[in-house]
């Protein structure tokens, strides 16, 4: 076993040597190794594929091993011979290697020295870096300390020139820079980080003295500026800008350091401005009121005749025209509506108005005064907010001015009987109120609310006065059939109010106008018309008045509920007048027609109609028809002064006459189918129609 192991080891060495020298191929090397392994432990390689293939072919493994060993020995001898041949070269190579080792040793020594030098230099560089870093930190700390110390000194030290300027310089725009610098130093000294320093303790008394001195100088200066606002004939807004607003920084300084003096200055300002605005408002309102015209008095109520209000002097002038008004200016809107179009225009200039000799209604006075008040209030509100920083005391400034405006308004409304003016005042107030709503000024909101209440209350009182005057109206004489002054006044008043149509009170206004309309209708139909003895005169009286109302409303483009109501009344009264006018000369013929037509409905006319009476009526109409038409024409001329109304009524009367006569002839034909014995008295329809056309054209 030992020999076998040695033999195997020897063979392995040979195989390895042969493989190293490249004498064996890869397959041979693998086979040799397998054999060696097989000899080592044959059982281990029984499963090897090469061994199994050799066994399956019946190859003797020992013989194969000897062949391999022989080959190995041959390779070994060749390898040894090669080494012997190259021995001199190997010896030279060995010598060269030794010389290289010597050179490399010297180089290693030199590099080691160089490495040591580099380490020393690196340490020196690191030392210099550390020193530089330390110096940078020290420099930065010193700069920071210097900056803070310099800032502290600059903020805490009071320069002599600042002391001089604060104490001796005149208060002006440049003074603001001084107090701002002082304010910075005072604020710095009050900081917790500064107040504990000894420097602050030394400088604090001096700063306090300067603060007190500057506050007193600013107070005196601002009080003087406020007093300068009292100059007459100056524009307040311009004076505020030049005298106060550019010094608001001084007020802010005083506000911060002396609230008591700030309150004193503000109180002086509010008192001064209150008096200034009150003086201006009084002067402006007084000037406008001198140009005001009074268009309506208590004598201009619907049911008050002119001589009742104007006295005996007026009676001597107008006594020849009973029942006519002295004028309808109090009831006509005319150009007064223009005030609504001028809502956004600036206030009227008093000097221009006086120079032009213009006159104003009160709604124009109110519009201009209220617009001026709005502009002034808005300007003052902006000024106080910018200068004082708040609007405290705003109500005190304008309280007296607004109270004076309210007094003026109440004084006018108490004695006013101008219903149109009250409505215009309501509408102007509503527009101004809407324009001011966005500014959120409670004082003015209350003012406009109060104006609304006063104007509406007075309007209701005036309208109640109109209704009561109609209810109490008693004519001194029988009224003419021509239009009554009440109808003219009523039509103009209603047209004016309907044209204005104030949205805020329209439902209530409609109720008031319905009550007024009912009272007018009762006055005409139940009281005035009854002074006429005949129904025809009564109908003519009502037609004239109702037509005047309808026509006036139409001319004023105020058609509506009132116009429709009186149109219905007019149509019904016209029918009454037509019947009454025809009944005067043709009453028997009309009665005959109305009585006979029902009798002829059955068809059998024998004995139902009185032929003799029929003949009498026909002869009478034949003899009098021309005169009757002329009489109708004359009656209409006397009863209706309006050309259009008279023509309309005449046409209706003559047309109705033609209809009655046509119906009468139909009765004659039905009674005498073969011809009436009195046919020669029958007037032809064309003849009658031709005459009617002539009168209609000539009216």
Q: What does this entry look like structurally?
A:
There is one protein chain. This protein has helices at 2-20, 26-40, 49-57, 61-85, 87-156, 160-168, 173-189, 192-195, 198-228, 236-243, 248-257, 259-290, 306-318, 338-341, 350-356, 362-387, 394-414, 419-436, 442-472, 485-500, 506-528, 535-555, 561-599, 611-639, 643-671, 685-698. Among the domains are: 64-156; 160-257, no CATH class; 581-696, Monooxygenase (Up-down Bundle), CATH 1.20.1280. The radius of gyration is 65 Å and the shape is elongated. Helix 9 (198-228) packs parallel to helix 12 and helix 25 (643-671) packs antiparallel against helix 26. 27% of the residues are buried. By secondary structure, it is mostly helical.
Lay out the secondary structure.
Elements: H1 2-20, H2 26-40, H3 49-57, H4 61-85, H5 87-156, H6 160-168, H7 173-189, H8 192-195, H9 198-228, H10 236-243, H11 248-257, H12 259-290, H13 306-318, H14 338-341, H15 350-356, H16 362-387, H17 394-414, H18 419-436, H19 442-472, H20 485-500, H21 506-528, H22 535-555, H23 561-599, H24 611-639, H25 643-671, H26 685-698
Protein name: Vacuolar protein sorting-associated protein 52 homolog
Pfam family, one: Vps52_CC
Subcellular location: Golgi apparatus, trans-Golgi network
Structure summary:
With about 700 residues, this protein is mainly alpha-helical. It is about 75% helix and about 0% strand. It has helices at about 1-20, 25-40, 50-55, 60-85, 85-155, 160-170, 175-190, 190-195, 200-230, 235-245, 250-255, 260-290, 305-320, 340, 350-355, 360-385, 395-415, 420-435, 440-470, 485-500, 505-530, 535-555, 560-600, 610-640, 645-670, 685-699.
């Amino acid at each position: 076993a030992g020999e076998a192991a040695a033999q195997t080891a020897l063979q392995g060495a040979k195989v390895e040597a042969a493989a190293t020298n490249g004498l064996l191929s890869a397959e041979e090397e693998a086979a040799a190794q397998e054999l060696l392994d097989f000899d080592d432990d044959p059982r281990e390689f029984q499963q090897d594929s090469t061994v199994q293939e050799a066994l399956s072919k019946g190859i003797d493994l020992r013989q194969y091993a000897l062949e391999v060993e022989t080959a190995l020995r041959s390779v070994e001898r060749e390898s040894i011979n090669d080494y012997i041949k190259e021995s001199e070269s190997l010896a030279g190579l060995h010598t060269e290697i030794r010389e290289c080792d010597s050179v490399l040793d010297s180089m290693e020594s030199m590099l080691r020295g160089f490495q040591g030098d580099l380490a020393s230099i690196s340490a020196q560089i690191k030392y210099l870096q550390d020193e530089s870093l330390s110096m940078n930190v020290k420099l930065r700390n010193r700069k920071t300390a210097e900056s803070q110390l310099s800032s502290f000194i600059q903020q805490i030290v009071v320069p002599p020139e600042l002391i001089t300027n604060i104490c001796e310089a005149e208060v002006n725009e440049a003074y603001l820079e001084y107090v701002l610098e002082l304010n910075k130093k005072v604020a710095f000294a009050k900081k917790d980080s500064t107040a504990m320093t000894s420097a602050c303790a030394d400088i604090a008394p001096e700063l306090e003295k300067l603060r007190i001195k500057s506050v007193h100088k600013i107070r005196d200066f601002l009080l003087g500026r406020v007093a300068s606002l009292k100059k007459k004939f100056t524009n307040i807004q311009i004076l505020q800008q030049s005298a106060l607003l550019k010094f608001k920084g001084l007020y802010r300084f005083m506000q911060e350091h002396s609230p008591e003096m700030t309150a004193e200055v503000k109180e002086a300002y509010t008192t001064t401005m209150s008096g200034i605005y009150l003086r201006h408002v009084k002067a402006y309102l007084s000037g406008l009121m001198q140009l005001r015209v009074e268009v309506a008095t208590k004598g201009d109520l619907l049911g008050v005749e002119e001589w009742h209000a104007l006295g005996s002097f007026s009676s001597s002038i107008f006594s020849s025209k009973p029942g006519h008004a002295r004028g309808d200016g109090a009831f006509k809107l005319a150009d007064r509506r223009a005030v609504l179009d001028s809502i956004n225009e600036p206030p009227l200039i008093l000097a221009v108005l006086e120079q032009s000799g213009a006159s104003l209604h009160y709604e124009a006075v109110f519009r201009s005064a209220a617009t001026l008040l709005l502009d002034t209030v808005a300007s003052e509100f902006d000024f106080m907010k910018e200068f004082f920083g708040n609007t405290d005391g705003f109500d005190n400034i304008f309280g007296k001015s607004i109270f004076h405006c309210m007094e003026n308004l109440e004084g006018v409304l108490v004695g006013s009987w101008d219903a149109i003016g009250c409505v215009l005042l309501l509408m102007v107030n509503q527009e101004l109120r809407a324009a001011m709503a966005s500014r959120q000024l409670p004082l003015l909101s209350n003012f406009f609310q109060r104006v609304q209440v006063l104007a509406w209350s007075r309007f209701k009182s005036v309208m109640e006065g109109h209704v009561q005057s109609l209810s109490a109206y008693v004519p001194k004489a029988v009224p003419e059939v021509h239009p009554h002054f009440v109808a003219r006044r009523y039509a103009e008043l209603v047209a004016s109010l309907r044209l204005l149509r104030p949205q805020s009170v329209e439902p209530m206004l409609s109720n008031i106008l319905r009550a007024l309309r009912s009272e007018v209708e009762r006055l005409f139909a139940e009281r005035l018309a009854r002074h006429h003895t005949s129904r025809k005169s009564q109908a003519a009286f009502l037609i004239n008045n109702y037509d005047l109302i309808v026509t006036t409303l139409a001319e004023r483009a105020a058609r509506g509920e009132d116009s429709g109501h009186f149109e219905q009344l007019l149509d019904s009264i016209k029918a009454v007048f037509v019947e009454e006018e025809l009944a005067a000369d043709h009453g028997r013929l009309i009665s005959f027609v109305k009585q006979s037509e029902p009798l002829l409905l059955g068809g059998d006319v024998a004995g139902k109609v009185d032929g003799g009476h029929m003949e009498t009526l026909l002869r009478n109409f034949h003899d009098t028809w021309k005169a009757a038409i002329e009489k109708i024409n004359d009656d209409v001329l006397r009863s209706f002064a309006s050309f259009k109304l008279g023509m309309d009524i005449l046409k209706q009367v003559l047309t109705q006459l033609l209809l009655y006569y046509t119906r009468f002839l139909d009765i004659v034909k039905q009674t005498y189918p073969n011809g009436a014995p009195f046919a020669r008295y029958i007037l032809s329809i064309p003849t009658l129609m031709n005459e009617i056309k002539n009168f209609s054209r000539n009216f």
